[in-house]
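Batch job 17 of 40 flagged for manual review because the log was empty.
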Amino acid sequence: MAGKRCYASIMAAPDLNLLVTLDALLAERSVAGAAKRLRLSPSAMSRALARLRETTGDPLLVRAGRGLVPTPRAIALREQVGQLVQQANTVLGPAEKPDFQHLVRTFTVRTREGFVENFGLDLIARLEREAPGVRLRFVQKSDKESAPLRDGSVDLETGVVGGTTGPEVRTQALFQDRFIGVVRLGHALSQGPVTPARYAAGRHIDVSRRDHDKGQVDEALRPLGLERTITVTVGGFSTALALARSSDLIATVPERYTGNLRTGMHGFPLPVPMPEITISLLWHPRLDADPVHRWLRGCVREVCAQQRRASPELE
């Protein structure tokens, strides 16, 4: 019985389109004028007025000479109806262009280490110029799971799109990157050509968030009968570069992603073929049409595009 009562109440709900009709009739005080305003025929508007009278239990507009005048009920409803129609138009219409100079909002961005060090300062400066009230909160990306984007704890993410990326997640390429070798200045590999044998013979730092310490570089060396000696495994690029800067260890890191972290060090192209990687922006579709989020994505893309492709010694 409760289900039937609920269904009956839904069926008895008023047609909200009648609010627009009533607003036009009260503004025009003319069936013909309201019909023209809403691009309806006079007969259709007359039928709508009849439905309004039935729904409200009031004549609303009555004949006075050649025109129509509102009843007391209609006068009482006019301001309220106008506000409701305006609010509906605001809710259902396109979002207004944000006032970026007075916008106050915080975005959480999840990245691997290296992104903030390379692109963070330029991005912050861009936001301070265009939207000084916008704040960024950078958090470390420890995995490729899409749960933080889904639950809203993260607004935007950078990284390589992988098999664990949620199928609904929106992605857009930022730039292509490649892995390079990096050593301290004065290291043996900073002089002369780096052959596969010289590269493999050194002591290496592996950057991995997983348990194993073999990756694409090792797969590329295997057909040549070569194998790296992994001395230490770390979880991030900055740690790998910090170790390489103060030792004879060799770090293998993405070039553009670690540009500023490698200042004062020697980088060289890997002596074995390696596929490039695509660094992308990732976000949840619920934010796709948000004009402020769209603006932020554009800022990140443009800041990344302005960074030069490679270090001079690697060209």
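Reviewer: the log was empty due to a logging misconfiguration, but the result itself is present. The first strand starts at residue 61 and ends at 64. Unflagging and moving on to job 18.
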